[in-house]
Amino acid sequence: MKEQMLPAKGKLGILLPGLGAVASTMIAGVIATRKGLSKPVGSLTQTGHIELGEGKGDRFPLIKDFVPLASLEDVVFGGWDIYEDNVYEAASHAKVLDQHLLDALKPELETIRPMKAVFDRDYVRNLDGKFIKQSANKWDAAQELIRDIETFKKENKVSRVVIVWTGSTEKYLEASAVHESIAAFEAGLKNNDPAIAPSMVYAYAAVSQGIPFINGAPNLTTDIPAIVQLANKTKTPIGGKDFKTGQTLMKTIVAPGLAARSLGVTGWYSTNILGNRDGLVLDDEQNFKTKEVSKLGVLEDILRPDLHPDLYGDLYHKIRINYYPPHGDNKESWDNIDIFGWLNYQMQIKINFLCRDSILAAPLVLDLALFADLAQRAGMYGVQDWLSFYLKSPQTQEGVPAENDIFKQLNTLKEVLRNMMKEDEPEFNTVKHIRAAEQVIG
Amino acid sequence: MKEQMLPAKGKLGILLPGLGAVASTMIAGVIATRKGLSKPVGSLTQTGHIELGEGKGDRFPLIKDFVPLASLEDVVFGGWDIYEDNVYEAASHAKVLDQHLLDALKPELETIRPMKAVFDRDYVRNLDGKFIKQSANKWDAAQELIRDIETFKKENKVSRVVIVWTGSTEKYLEASAVHESIAAFEAGLKNNDPAIAPSMVYAYAAVSQGIPFINGAPNLTTDIPAIVQLANKTKTPIGGKDFKTGQTLMKTIVAPGLAARSLGVTGWYSTNILGNRDGLVLDDEQNFKTKEVSKLGVLEDILRPDLHPDLYGDLYHKIRINYYPPHGDNKESWDNIDIFGWLNYQMQIKINFLCRDSILAAPLVLDLALFADLAQRAGMYGVQDWLSFYLKSPQTQEGVPAENDIFKQLNTLKEVLRNMMKEDEPEFNTVKHIRAAEQVIG
Amino acid sequence: MKEQMLPAKGKLGILLPGLGAVASTMIAGVIATRKGLSKPVGSLTQTGHIELGEGKGDRFPLIKDFVPLASLEDVVFGGWDIYEDNVYEAASHAKVLDQHLLDALKPELETIRPMKAVFDRDYVRNLDGKFIKQSANKWDAAQELIRDIETFKKENKVSRVVIVWTGSTEKYLEASAVHESIAAFEAGLKNNDPAIAPSMVYAYAAVSQGIPFINGAPNLTTDIPAIVQLANKTKTPIGGKDFKTGQTLMKTIVAPGLAARSLGVTGWYSTNILGNRDGLVLDDEQNFKTKEVSKLGVLEDILRPDLHPDLYGDLYHKIRINYYPPHGDNKESWDNIDIFGWLNYQMQIKINFLCRDSILAAPLVLDLALFADLAQRAGMYGVQDWLSFYLKSPQTQEGVPAENDIFKQLNTLKEVLRNMMKEDEPEFNTVKHIRAAEQVIG
Amino acid sequence: MKEQMLPAKGKLGILLPGLGAVASTMIAGVIATRKGLSKPVGSLTQTGHIELGEGKGDRFPLIKDFVPLASLEDVVFGGWDIYEDNVYEAASHAKVLDQHLLDALKPELETIRPMKAVFDRDYVRNLDGKFIKQSANKWDAAQELIRDIETFKKENKVSRVVIVWTGSTEKYLEASAVHESIAAFEAGLKNNDPAIAPSMVYAYAAVSQGIPFINGAPNLTTDIPAIVQLANKTKTPIGGKDFKTGQTLMKTIVAPGLAARSLGVTGWYSTNILGNRDGLVLDDEQNFKTKEVSKLGVLEDILRPDLHPDLYGDLYHKIRINYYPPHGDNKESWDNIDIFGWLNYQMQIKINFLCRDSILAAPLVLDLALFADLAQRAGMYGVQDWLSFYLKSPQTQEGVPAENDIFKQLNTLKEVLRNMMKEDEPEFNTVKHIRAAEQVIG
């Protein structure tokens, strides 16, 4: 694959539908890093190493030195929003970052201004922005987005573009006939089918032009046959859904550990308090349902109650999200996990995660953008399920079950990178331990 | 290796130095399982599956159906203790299990009576049992243990024996000259060298007779050159140290997750409250030091501050254990983890684990005994570092760094089992995902 | 008042509408105490002391030695339920108490059998018991209850009866015209007015006969003018609403402490998980609303945002209850309290209360029954707001604001007891300190 | 008493031995308040109301409008320290307050410069400041402090001075012969008796000159007969010990609540993590012991195991403080409380208090200074135990037991203020409830 890989020449445009807390935090961080004011902590592409060759420590380069990622120096930002604030203003309102830091980045941030959004309040009842395209129908809206992208490319002289959805969670939708084929979908765009949410219009616009599109919210968006078919047709990488941060991140860390030790689980109660715009959106029942479905699935795949009915057959899983303004972006989760061990004796684990929503999400946006661009240059297209490491509810290629165990997800991601660069799987301690055992056995 | 594997014929004796809370809980559980009163939850050998062949779900047998482990029906128990209580009495005093369950198992439990222990209060100041061998010196003590084992084998008609140390933590010792060779060690036994702790006398007795010995406490015990050399000479499997339960179990689950996501860690404060005999022993500073050293090491290996100085270079790790009688065996840990993400913004994780010490440890004793016996029948000997999955401070073969990441430990364990049975590594989703990507790439 | 007090002669019948977890736990505990199997922990009437005379320690008798309460030896139990289970069966199903204890009390418990309940599923949607009176209308239902009480008194030879509502929370109702007067209410009973909930029928039946009635659920029940007027007319003590246990108990302990120290509060998030019948009932939105209203009020009264707008003017208070079957009766609450201090710096308090619903409620039922009987013998009638110590949402006499600070509530309760017995308020340390100061000042 | 009260004329000097985190935070806050940049949250003297007259709401003035306290406008600050930093520098190093706020206050803060401290590292092993008086002996040191105070008064034109000890915890000392009388103490000063700690030298210097002295650390300091006798002789108010903040504050809020409800307590485990200079000092075993003794006492007085042996007779109370640099001044406590209720069923409460040491302590320093000055003007002298509201281990007048229940402490404080101003105790709801009951009874 190495020979096919196109180099990261020229500038990479990262376009973000939704220039709110997450997007502005990511952009501010990249600029702060470029200026030497900060480190890109939490970003695997910028700080992570990869094991190569004959074992741990032998060769362990930074990922960004191993695969030809776009450099942070070459990245340009743009996007759409339903509020007219520039990124400096948006970041200031979001109150995620210290105002003194934002002030130091003001010259760069205030030049990034949103384009008018494709938006319909019917899908996100608790928001009411006014900076919205007045298109005749969804088809026209898609065409306007395509023109927006073209304009952005020209004005910023970028050679490549990727799009990462950083907008709000839309109300719950299920895949239906209009999503089944490209033709049906395009007809639906033209007759304003209500089953086509705004995020799908963005996805269509991007993928129809061969622009990689990753979905960071739990909406269907790219997870419908029409967009998958289009991606295969235009040879475009797509991926989703829902950035894995906070509580679900912790859940997909802890659950594999319980499973490893054959400890049973009878109940898992998860509550969240959150006071930012995301919390406000999820305070609406229909939008919460989209999120709930995304969050509920992870335990089943990891614990496999089908294989371990005695351990996980009776698991009661409950998730709640509460809008709680005093915390702003400082999302906080509390989990109570009821487990049992030897002789069915019960034990409990309580996890209180005082996290920051946008701080956790920002580096994921960056990594997903850079990896989506890399995939495209490597000739990969369709659903990029090797990026499920970043996602709460991974969209997979047909017939492939989703993997939610974060450690298996990371192994997959690294294995794909090694395959890209024609590197064999390394021999770790594992192998050394096995060898040592075998030598002895003779 | 398959052809070399000796079958699990006849009875297996499991001998336990220390018939206290952990040992009696394990024994009671095995008997309850045999009687159909309970399930062996928490035991990988009894409830775990192993992935084989062409991927998840294709072949996924129970481990105990895949490798020829001794059956629970064929296991016989014995041991030594400094108190004369039989196992029914010991379990009743330990107050780990419901008295009504113990009463149902009384006929079986009360027939298991300890042999007199090799013990010296100088190594465990807070205990004062009187059921102790009065040997002329440590060499004689070892010989008496060897005779004990022989007697046990005859009386119980067992074909094989393994020993798992379930005794208390001894005071802190460092390896010194007397531990450097078999000859020096045997001389030390004869002249009562204070650097030879009682647990080493047991280890010597076992390994000199080709009996596998696993150490569940943080003492040096088998982790000295003399015992390693002896194990290689007598072709005996050995392993240690310190059952990984409770707080350290949770730590080696969570830390790999933070590392996976490139999240920085500035501090990790761990406190424990515990009211059983183990807690009492650790209330003495010298014994706590042994435990502390065992517990402190795990983060370094997992987080690799050498590779990620920006993320883990300043990590402050503090561990406390407090004797707290109101909780009895219901050990409880509270961890505060100070992490940082994007732009160095700080977040916190608090984990409160309301666990049960002996409930978590019991299945580990069983698994380690069964795997040590399996290893011996497979012709494996020396340090069995593939069992580090169960251990807080894994002893490794020379030159092989310890692995503390519980997920890598489990992979190693399963890989060794597959190798034993000449099974190739399976293709998981990972591989399917890669294949899918490659097909597309062509 | 001492001379007017009637002695506690003869037996006291405690009748309980709702013989479920709380009622059966209370009954079992009283019988276990009578048999010397247990102590009545959590009951102020049985274990509490009262300060008298010239200061702390001078005179400090047990409350039950100070006021002429009915003795536990003289108490007889009965009640109504929508399930036909006797109290032994009900307690066994509730899984609150150890089955071995229940078996020891079986002879006494199984003789206590419910009478058929007045019930209408329209008020409690998630329950579906069948042991229900088929009355022509609510008036007839009340008459049947009156006959039930008469029968109970005769059969059990009791001299006095009190009723404590231990039934479920009913759906949310607001006081309306039919509740405004005795006449309107009696007309409503006859024409089956939907604003008259079953608990009101019980209250009417009791109060019309001069039988004290205390309401342990958040329903209106006695908190309507009709019942208050009737209580004054028949000279009957009444009280309510909603036993103060668990989270609200903790809240009315902690909030006065924050107020004492002039610490500001910006947010208070309270969540509960609960798996018993109470949790099931509250899983219905209409029933939860009744509970929510009861729980929300307590902070306002304690913190007085009207007087301290800078400290409490922006307090965001959110309460959630989640049905969570794995925990059964082991209710658990988690509170996050956002406070601020000097220079508005923010701090947080997290309280995790692993409580037991019925264990906390049971002694309150007993105390309220005994105090209601005492009040009646002391000639007190109407709303007994001095019992607000036990209640989440105290019903008060007209024009008297509710007091929710548990420490002020306790002071009131003790002061009323002292007044009953013509004892002056004692001089405590407080007074000693003041005296000491004054002496010095001369 | 009203007529005797001297008015708050002229300036009040507040002198602080120890110009570290707590002192500088207090000073910065007072100046910020004067400038209108902040509110004095957490200060009872500045934000608290007092109930007067015929009941709640009738008259409820601010305390500072009710008693003639010194105004914040009239307060002048000074002090001593072992480091030469001015208060701006000290506050900057302490990292308690936002640097931007400190910069806004820099002109005022940097003019406050410490005087050289009386210090001996033998009493505080983990500190090593060099800005120390080189006195011939402790008597001379006291004389130098007296001259310092005189100089401060002249230079700042203050009419009155009070001293509040904001220095470190000294090593554990018990009262001995040298502390028994003024004469013995003065002899000890002259011959450098090691039982006289530096804080006692300050106390002696102050009290000998009639300057009120309050001790905010757990050292003996004023809690010895010599200083008490001297205070009575010079008619000077004194008080101590140990500011009640954080964990002990919470403990004296929650314990009265458990006692109110007759809930038993079997164990109370309290751990603290703290990374400021206070944490460093307490990392030394001898200094921790002083603190431990101060913290351990509070439960006994509140729960009264002598009166309730069944409930509190077996209480196991354990307190730990751990130096944990990652948290700096953000002290954090975690408490596990094991309680039991009806039928001895066990429950647990976990309290995690993420507090800020200096933020909680600063307003206490201010209040104690203002109240000590008020007491002096009211003619009160000797031990001011009515100020125990602020203190972890209240020093009391001879023969008066300490009161630790924060609600009783607050009642006492307010009662003393009312007595000062010749106001009768008000009639609260309590009384209204009683009246209402009595009216009915007739």
TrEMBL record, chains A, B, C, D:
InterPro entries: Myo-inos-1-P_Synthase, Myo-inos-1-P_Synthase_GAPDH, NAD(P)-bd_dom_sf. It comes from the Bacteria. One of its GO terms (biological process) is inositol biosynthetic process. Residues 246-358 form the Myo-inositol-1-phosphate synthase GAPDH-like domain. PANTHER family: MYO-INOSITOL-1 PHOSPHATE SYNTHASE (PTHR11510). Belongs to the myo-inositol 1-phosphate synthase family. This is Inositol-3-phosphate synthase. The lineage of its organism: Bacteria, Pseudomonadati, Bacteroidota, Chitinophagia, Chitinophagales.
